[in-house]
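Action item from last week, closing it out:
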Amino acid sequence: MTLESATAKKDVIKLMFVLDVTGSMGDELSYLQTELADVIKRVAKDTNTRIDLAFLFYRDDGDDEKMSYVEFSTVNDETNLNKQLKYLKAQSANGGGDMPEAVDEALEIAVTANWGEENATRLIFHVLDAPPHSEEKNKTRFEKAVKVAAAKGIRICPILCSGANELCEYLVRQEAI
């Protein structure tokens, strides 16, 4: 069988970490800053696959810095890797103060970022401990972001942290599906 319109995936992984960095995520952020740096260094060094890495850090309405994004950069290059890791290390957990966070807005920014046109593996690791706000606009934005991710071939891999409630668990399952 010959598929004339199919294109093979390139040896490229587009990887974005979307991280809740509100005050309740302090312990998790500290752990992630250490562990992610180690894993990314080892994988970038020991693979023939190009790895493009981006970070999106989010908090909540009313916080001084609600969203902080650094676009994709190829981390197989040591200079780019060091810049990305420096950005990760510079983050601190603060703000928030209530259970819902700006999850829907963060996902919207993440899925509408410039993922490029090449046929690559696209992954978002979403690390969080709180659901989005429950107003209708937030629900709609969350649902649309998840659908856009699916349409673009972006696989969302949620990682739920301590303190999350059942609603948050339900929503991250929806993200993953």
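Closing note: Strands lie at 12-20, 50-58, 67-74, 121-128, 154-160.
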